Amino acid sequence: MSAAVQCVSVLGATGSIGTSTLDVIARHPDRYRLHALTAHTSREALLALCQRHRPAVAVLADEADAAWLRERLAAAGLDTQARAGEAALVEVAEASEVDVVMAAIVGAAGLLPTLAAVRAGKRVLLANKEALVMSGALFMDAVATHGATLLPIDSEHNAIYQCLPAEHRGGLARHGVTQLLLTASGGPFLGWTPAQLAEVTPAQACAHPNWSMGRKISVDSATLMNKGLELIEACWLFDARPEQVQVVVHPQSVIHSMAAYSDGSVIAQLGNPDMRTPIAYGLAWPQRIDAGVEPLDLFQVARLDFQAPDEMAFPCLRLAREAMAAGGTAPAVLNAANEVAVDAFLAGRLPFTAVAELVARVRDARPVLPADELATILDEDRQARQTAQAILVRMLEETI
Ligand SMILES: NC(=O)C1=CN([C@@H]2O[C@H](COP(=O)(O)OP(=O)(O)OC[C@H]3O[C@@H](n4cnc5c(N)ncnc54)[C@H](OP(=O)(O)O)[C@@H]3O)[C@@H](O)[C@H]2O)C=CC1
Ligand SMILES: CC(=O)[C@@H](O)[C@H](O)COP(=O)(O)O
Ligand SMILES: [Mn+2]
């Protein structure tokens, strides 16, 4: 029996996850149709996606860009409506005709539309880890209250989801799970010393050894902040305490993560490093569909290595663990400071090793508030960014 056609909104359609999502969807025209595709400023890329995938709605940040797109869509004879702004993002995330929302905007900008999808009870495919890091308890409460189906797309969390029993709510111990083993590639600078790290360029940091990804997450992988954000993400998704999540450096990125059980079993999910696998899993769950991914050739992989992370050379992992332990708004502050630091690094203003320093200095300058109100989280995000900008200026002056 064929499944009913699912209507999908892809938030962040022009990005790395968005592109992979559209690749999987295009393989299954019998299963999926598109309601909306969104982008920030990439209007040419969004126009090309509209021509190829024919969504009902396309969203850009700016009204002038939306007007540009509207004109081109009309000229091409497409009836896609072009919209602008955050309200339009929220609208396409919660629209009644939408069944599935791919949350693939990068950074804090994804929080409101992702939360809107959750509050509308959608199937939410969560790639935008920053949204959950910022608003953990509030986000998970909203999932439960509004009956949303939350499926992790981040490769490690998708792997853990696959390694846990189908019904794993109510604490890991209840299901005999003793530990979550979160794998990390180690990034492009695995084994480098702090002195070597001080000299690295944005191009080097964005050259991930195994995955092709957007620039922000690539830098996060290089600093190990990505693993720190993922540790926080795992705690919220799987109701785990930070000490139940062990980070295991596995340079091949073939094992995407594991769950350890009380009887000594360790269950792992393996596959080629291609995000179309977790995306297809999220789209089709609980069924399986073709994702266009090459079968894993274990003879070609040949060996799987493991080692502990170097938290001296890569302090961001420790900073994230400490933020999770501090609770409240601490993870939102960590995230905001990191976004400012990564932007400054990518702009050539801040050395790679100063990313962790800036994050730590912002953390020390901000209070930890209860994070039970969205307004508090958004306000702390804004204030942490202002603090980060001010500290960044001081840090740049200190180095002159
Ligand atoms: N790439 C990967 O393999 C993985 C990514 N993730 C997570 O998925 C998310 C997306 O990552 P990735 O695809 O790599 O990122 P990209 O930078 O490739 O894409 C980001 C997307 O978000 C849009 N966007 C950027 N800023 C805004 C904004 N302020 N408002 C609205 N839309 C915006 C971009 O539009 P425009 O093109 O116009 O800038 C683009 O469509 C991140 O949270 C990342 O951590 C998780 C696991 C793996
Ligand atoms: C593909 C994916 O999920 C990324 O988050 C990836 O995990 C980055 O790799 P590392 O952070 O392990 O280097
Ligand atoms: Mn990941």
From TrEMBL:
Pfam families xrefs: DXP_redisom_C (PF08436), DXP_reductoisom (PF02670), DXPR_C (PF13288)
Record key words, sorted: Isomerase, Isoprene biosynthesis, Magnesium, Manganese, Metal-binding, NADP, Oxidoreductase
InterPro entries assigned: DXP_reductoisomerase (IPR003821), DXP_reductoisomerase_C (IPR013644), DXP_reductoisomerase_N (IPR013512), DXPR_C (IPR026877), DXPR_C_sf (IPR036169), NAD(P)-bd_dom_sf (IPR036291)
GO annotation (BP), single: isopentenyl diphosphate biosynthetic process, methylerythritol 4-phosphate pathway involved in terpenoid biosynthetic process
Residues reported in the UniProt entry to bind Mn(2+): D154, E156, E230
Protein source organism: Halomonas salipaludis
Record-annotated membrane-spanning stretches: none
Enzyme Commission code: 1.1.1.267
Gene Ontology MF term list: 1-deoxy-D-xylulose-5-phosphate reductoisomerase activity; isomerase activity; manganese ion binding; NADPH binding
Function: Catalyzes the NADPH-dependent rearrangement and reduction of 1-deoxy-D-xylulose-5-phosphate (DXP) to 2-C-methyl-D-erythritol 4-phosphate (MEP).
Gene: dxr
Residue ranges annotated for the DXP reductoisomerase C-terminal domain, each copy included: 270-386
Lineage summary: Bacteria, Pseudomonadati, Pseudomonadota, Gammaproteobacteria, Oceanospirillales
Cofactor: Mg(2+); Mn(2+)
Binding, NADPH: T14, G15, S16, I17, N128, E130, G214
Family listed: Belongs to the DXR family.
Recorded catalytic activity of this chain's protein: 2-C-methyl-D-erythritol 4-phosphate + NADP(+) = 1-deoxy-D-xylulose 5-phosphate + NADPH + H(+)
Secretion signal span: none
UniProt protein name: 1-deoxy-D-xylulose 5-phosphate reductoisomerase
